[in-house]
Each structure stands twice: as C-alpha cells, then as structure tokens.
What we know:
The structure holds two protein chains of two kinds. Helices cover 45% and strands 10% of the residues of chain A. The mean pLDDT of chain A is 90. By secondary structure, chain A is of the alpha+beta class. Chain A contains 16 helices and seven strands. Chain A is globular, with a radius of gyration of 24 Å. Chain B is α/β, with parallel strands linked by helices. Chains A and B meet through helix 7, helix 10, helix 11, helix 12 and helix 13 of A and helix 1, helix 3, helix 4 and helix 9 of B. The complex binds iron/sulfur cluster (SF4) (2 copies) and FE2/S2 (inorganic) cluster. The site of one iron/sulfur cluster has 15 residues of chain A, from helix 6 and helix 8.
Amino acid sequence: xxFIIDRFDGKKNxxxxxTVEKKDIEALTLLGTLLFIKQHLDLTLNFTASCxxxxxxxxxxxxNGHSYLACDTKMTELFEEYKDADTFRISPLSNYTVISxxxxxxxPAIENLRKVKPGLVAKDKFSEKEGCVQNQEEYDxxxxxxxxxxxxxxxxxxxxxxxDRSDYMEPFVYTHAWKVANDSRTKDPMIHVKPSVANGLWNxxxxxxxxxxxxxxxxxxxxxxxLRALAMKKGLNSGVGPAHAKSFYTDLVEDSGRLxxxxxxxxxxxxxxxxxxxxxVTLMSAGKMNPLEIFGGHExxxxxxxxxxxxxxHAAHKE
Amino acid sequence: xxxxxxxxxxxxLTQAAIEAKMSLEAIAPVLGIKLKxxxxxxxxxxSQAQDVDPLATLVANARNLxxxxxxxxxxLTTCSTCLLMLRRAKAQLDSGEKERINTFLAKGNMSxxxxxxxxxxxxxxxxxxxxxxxxxxxxxxxxxxxxxxxxHSVRPGKDLGFESSVNPTSxxxxxxxxxxxxxxxTKRLDCCGFHAVYPAEKSVMKMTSGIVNxxxxxxxxxxxxxxxxxxxxxDIYQDDAQxxxxxxxxxxxxxxxxxxxxxxxxxxxxxxLDYNVIDASKLG
Lengths: 319, 284
Ligand code: SF4
Ligand code: SF4
Ligand code: FES
C-alpha cells in the first residue's frame, strides 16, 4: 500500500510516495507507521513526536485532509474509517506554518495563548497557609478542559482560521481561556474573557470541526459559546455578534417563539444596513419573505407555557 | 420502513427557504412519507441562542422533543442545524439532565421521556435508497452534482452518529439512486460560514466563494445540500461572495428535496425552483 506524504525542505513543497506492505504496518499506530517509514525507507522524513502516549501533543498530522493525533490512532481505525483504502495522504497540520515536512511552527499559536492569560490568577483570599482548594463539583466543571494537550488538531481543522487568521485565534486558546475563567479559584473571569472577545471570540463559524476531531473530546466550540454567554452576562455585549445571538433569544423567549428573519437583520445590523442591501431585502426581492412579517409572526401555540418553563429554569439557577 | 414522522420544519423552512418546504411536501407523498407538523414547535436556538442562555435553549428543545413524544412518532427535520441542536439536547437530557429539566417543563404540564428519536430527511432517504430508485421517473444521468454536506449534518460525529464524519456516504448514496453523477468535490465537508455571516462577513464570503469555485472547477452543473441554511448562504449570498473574490463562476444550489423531486418527475414550479436566487431553471 501507498503513503503519499507532503514534504517541505525549507524551500519547496513536494509530495513523496512510500510503498509499504500492509502486514508491516497494520498492527501499528499512525505514528508507528511514520517511524517505520523513517527507519526503513527514508531517514530524511521529518515529523515531531515525543511521549507516544497521547500526552505531549507533539504528533498531530492530517490523514486524507482530517487531523489525527498520530500516536493515538491505530492503523486499523484508519482502514475502517476510509473503507480499506490502499492509499493514504499524510500532511502537516493545517493553519500552521510548516518548518520541515510534517513539523510545524508553534510560536504564533503560543503567542495567542499568552494573550488570554492561561495561567490561574487566584482569588486574593487564598494564601500559602490556607491553600487554594476547590470542591469536587467545582473541579469536575473544568477537568475536561484540563485534558487539553496542545496538540493543535482543533486549530488545524478550524474553518475560520483557514479563511483568515488575522482576526481569530486557535480554538484551544479559547478553551484555555474558558478553563481559567470558569475555575472557582479564579480572581476575575474577565481577565481571560476580555482578551478572548478582543481577539475574535465572535468570529467562530460554528463548523464544529474542533469538537469533532479533538483526541481528548474537548469541544472548543462549546467553550467559545460558554465564554460568549459569560461575556454577555458581564455586560460585554456590544457589537454585531452579541446583537445577532441576542435576536434569536429575543424571538424565542420574548416574541413569537420562532425566529423572525426580517427583524433579525434589523436587530443585528440596524436599519441603515438593511436599506443598503441587507439579507432581508435580498429575501424579499426573491419573493421569499413577506415584508409585513416585520410586525412579528403569530405566537406559537403554548408559548406562554414555554416562557413559564424558562422562567422556572432561571429562578432555579439563581437559588 | 418507518414512514410517519413528527415534522420539525425549523424557522427557515417557514420563511426564507419556503422552496425547501414546497419541494419536501411535493416528494413526501410520492415516497410514501407522512409528515405531521408538530403543533407549537419553537425555534431550536439555531446554534445562536445558547450563546446568550444555554439553559433556556435546552429547555426549549426539551419541550420540542416532548411535543414529538406526545405524537408517538420519531422526529424528522430537514435543517441540519435544527438536527444538531435537537440531537445535542436529547443527548444532554438522556445523560443526566432529564430530571432537572423536567421540573421546568412541568410548569407547562409537560415532561420529556426520551422515547422519540431525531432523524433527518437525508438519513431517511439514504436508508431507503432502493425505494427512491424504484420511484425515479426522470433519471438525472446528464447531471453532474457537487454534493455539499455542510457542517451540522455530520459534525460533531458523536452527536449525529449516523455515519463517519470524515468519510460520510449517505448523500452520495441518495444522489446515485437518482441516477445523477457525483463529481469529486474537495469542499464537500467544508463550512459555508452561515452562522457567522454577520460578525465575520469577510471570512464567510471567502468560504462561500471557495465552495462555489471548487464546484465549478469540478464541472458540476449544480451544488446540492441537505441543509436549508447552507443552501441559503451559498445561493442568496453567491453574487456577493463571488464579487469579493472577483470570481465569475456561478453555480445553482439546490435543496436535497428539490433534486429528488426533479428525478421523481415533479414539475419545477412545484419544487419552487423559481425561488432559487441563482438561476436553476435549466435543471428543471
Ligand atoms: S482542544 Fe483538543 S484538539 Fe485542541 S489542542 Fe487541546 S487536545 Fe488538541
Ligand atoms: S467551531 Fe469555531 S473554533 Fe471550532 S473549528 Fe469551527 S470555526 Fe474553529
Ligand atoms: S507523541 Fe505525544 S501525544 Fe503523540
């Protein structure tokens, strides 16, 4: 079988095909296969790995365009996923600058991580003598995110980063911000939320690639949603992103119970944009929307009960 | 075959994507599918409301699920984002949240039990590909199709779970059953950007344009998507998106039910093809 590997020698990109016997690699991990190729076929092939046990986060690569942690992926799993394919394409993580073959530059991502102050800034009441304890429930809340091994798989998959890196950060950066912001020992969550908002929090496109591929089952997309909710709760709610999200909520709870697309455009962008060439105008001219909808749709059957249910949830949450 | 469903149209089908509803209503009786719209369904939150209030969003969807349970039917939706929101809510309820949320649903004399599954038009069609094949009146053998899954019909795999999220095949199975030709299309699992069109407009236009250009390069006659939100994004915003990247490529974008309807021999008008923004009339 064949492995087509994307290579980069510092100057030019090229592909190299390696042929191996299936029996030699089928019992191995993806990392084992890369090591096999390096040991037996090409000593010049470069990739990074260290712990070989899904802890160090160094061995992320892409197979057929999707990212995997190489040491944590069995070849048999890939055979199953790709229906016994006999050729695999191996590439470096996407959305990183390649240094050599499958090895990528982590420095810009780490710079972004620094922006959200990923270290815990503990409450003043904690002291060396008293310690800095939290109860089981508080610990359970954040333990999943502590599992992040900075492998970069989520960042490699991120559709927003691929479209434009200049106004966005790696998904795991938001996960680390969420983690410290939601730690019961944290002095002030806004230390982490504010730089997240300032660095693209509202620009996530909800593609769920990060959630889908994370080897530690962390959902950066959910952490982004969590940080947004926290930001709004703390009054950081100006701008198009919060206005857009809020209009869905308003329609659901305060208005008819269903989304009103004409009002959505208005609430999100304001009258001027709609008059220019908003979605609503496009929709109306395509005959897809009744302009009278602006006065609101009919309230759904049982909406008053829905509101009561939500109010009860809010009341219980406050207790 | 399970052929009766509690139908969850989602907000988009009742408004901006009325042609998706028209085409669905046109194909369902031909395929023997009965769709009973759920009375009083609410917005699923559209992958937005949870940014404001995750608890209220969960409560609203628990109520939606409970409404379907009252009908004793599995729930079907054509919108991938509704599918994801409902399935995620169900997973959350089934893994420990049921009791807590039921205390809130009780305020409206309702309760969630967990008896109704949530499925999508795409999945039901894929499960019944042979039946579809037997109903084809006008095989689409001359049509080259770029199948665009979009995000929420496959990701996250653990919440959707119908098939592999990196190598799905349901859509290709359905299109092949219609006799059409599926072209290789590198962007088939990409994101169209719909959910961030307001806050991240520049990026989103680039993403939308990339999909159209990739389909055009594959010589596709049309793009097809199971998700009405993807259809809306790639169709309504196509001209804007292509202007931002200075691309001349234009590709019509069909809803899944529209292409099925064409193969079943249903007239273009009944499928709402004239509501599509990028001219799709030649396909009818
Ligand atoms: S969130 Fe998951 S995928 Fe992303 S860096 Fe951390 S462990 Fe890797
Ligand atoms: S959901 Fe958001 S953070 Fe995750 S991969 Fe998509 S754009 Fe990136
Ligand atoms: S080698 Fe350490 S995570 Fe794979």
